[in-house]
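Re: Re: ligand-bound prediction request (bumping)

Still looking for help on this. To restate: I need the protein modeled with beta-D-glucopyranose bound, output as structure tokens. Inputs repeated here so nobody has to scroll up.
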Amino acid sequence: MNENQLTSLLEQMTTEEKVGQLIQLATPFLKGASDGGQITGPMVGMGITEEVVKNTGSVLGASGAKEIKNIQESHLKDNRLGIPLLFMSDIVHGYKTIFPVPLAIGCSWDLDLAERSAEIAAVEAAVSGIHVTFAPMVDLVRDPRWGRVMESTGEDPYLNSEFARAFVRGFQGDFANDNQRVASCVKHFAAYGAAEGGRDYNTVDMSEWQLRENYLPAYKAALDEGCEMVMTAFNILNGVPSTGNKTLMRDLLRNEWGFDGVLISDWGAVKELIPHGVAEGEKEAARKALEAGVDIEMMTECYVNHVQQLIEEGSLTENLVDEAVLRILKLKQKLGLFDNPYRGADERLERELILSKQHRDSARELAAKSAVLLKNEQVLPLERSQKIALIGPFADNHDILGPWSWLGAQEDTITLDKGIQSYASEVKIAEGSSVESSSSVQLDLALKAAEQSDVIVLALGESSDMSGEAGCRADIRLPQVQLELIQEMKQLNKPIVTVLFNGRPLELHGVIDETDALLEAWYPGTEGGQAVADLLYGTSNPSGRLAMSIPHSVGQVPVYYNHYNTGRPKNAPDAQERFVSQYLDSPNGPLFPFGYGLSYTTFTYSEVTISSQELREGETLTITTRITNSGEKAGEEVVQLYVRDTAGEVVRPMKELKNFERVSLYPGEEKVVIFTLKEEDLRYYHSNLEYKSDPGHFEVLVGPNSKQTSSSAFQLVK
Ligand code: BGC
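Reply:
Sorry for the wait, this slipped through. Here it is.
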């Protein structure tokens, strides 16, 4: 179908049929569905009639080629004009081959592998009949209490933007011509990650300057990469819920950024305009959301119940509805659904491709690159000959896929004990405690196992329902029983290696000083246990670097590297000063900074050299460092480039990441890393929201993390 044919299809549609395209229903409402599909929100009293189902435009949470073909087939029989359904699902970090959670992928600083993970997720999803994924989630995060930090790639706008692009490339590829890719829906627009107090769905209030500086770039990057769809956020933004926020979506997203794709509400978010207190009832909610630019209402019924009447009364123009419907029809067309409503759905390919060795190998590689070694007092890597006691609630726990892995099966997951058994000559396994409770029997068995060992490997963490959507915590330590388990093990005076499986930066008091080595594995996915064992035994060398700072304590939160200075900075960490910006009972900075991570080898950095002391518009500055592997093992280092604008028209962050490079080095090998900087890289939002650079002094800082950098300086001349 070409554009004219789509317009003529639109002309044949009744208003009721048009409005039907604007609702998205979960699988249980659809004929031909055999199971409930994925339910990720409330489904209360929707009063959906058979007529509405017949006219529905899209479905949420269905999966499987057979299932989706059945639903599509019966829908095409019922739908008067034979308009195919769009199938959308949350394929966030894998379909059945589950990759590490996005926060972990962020810690890989490996854009190629991130892209590959999204491509594999897309291939598995597409052959299973899915057309659109609700990913990537690119919300910038600074508060580890928020359960959804695990869905983000962290606290930095540049790193998030680079990952946003990589994920979109991986999911979409050339999806209009390739049935084994899916369209991508970036979410949650906007600033959902800044919920007050880290409590989900909570208020967000920030200046437009802050929004543009830090929160918007990753959404924009996804759209610049061609991302087809956008999802609204649940939160209020500066007094107006995002889902009814005209300034955000009409003015900025549609008019300023020129986004012409489909905008979908988050689950139930149109009707939530009522409890937010900006709509008296469903009718007003429908009007506000549609006027703000929301094309599809996910899982509530305000549009289907009220839009027709709003048009008849003259409170909405039919034109607004037509525009929304046309955008949806165009997406169906682009996906090729009018020619082949079953698109990539193929049972044979499902059997062949899903969880293939190749896919699992990529998951293993990315899991190893995502884990961050935070401490190592000469205990790692382990020797195969050492007797291991593997203790803790995650010793043989399959719950390591993390939230948003609804199709990932526990039985396909390699647990840590399986991974370790593939290396160790002798391993004894005991739970020691459950995730949040314990018994004396569990503890006795663990003590017995530990007593007979050379090294204790403690596998601790949060169960996956302790993070993710609505998984917020005010106390971000490990559960008390696990802290007690560490104390018990400590009494034995044996080397302790702790591996953490969790979805957020945790407060590590009671863990970090008590253990000799600490590996943050996050939720590492299907191959997680194997990848962690590969790291523990040195088959892989840790190379993950934190994409989000780890605080000393929850009381410091939010703590992030790219903060501003104060007028009264604390100059030296140990200085005894009074009237400076500080806590009396805690350092200001995090326990582990953004960009931090250890390796089994060491890297030395030469002085930073810079091609010129001056940079002019149109010119390029090169910044050079030589990195040497000064240790005894091959390894990978993530070389990071930061810039500091010493005096701006408005305040500038203490440091801003501008580039990075992963380098792989054999022992003794050295490589020269060359970064470039141009005037465009130094632009920022001014107080009048103009985006430009100013002449003046800049520092360039290069190093292995955001704290440990060496610097040089230049001047921007205009
Ligand atoms: C989440 C979205 C998700 C949607 C559909 C919502 O609860 O906030 O991220 O895409 O459900 O499952």
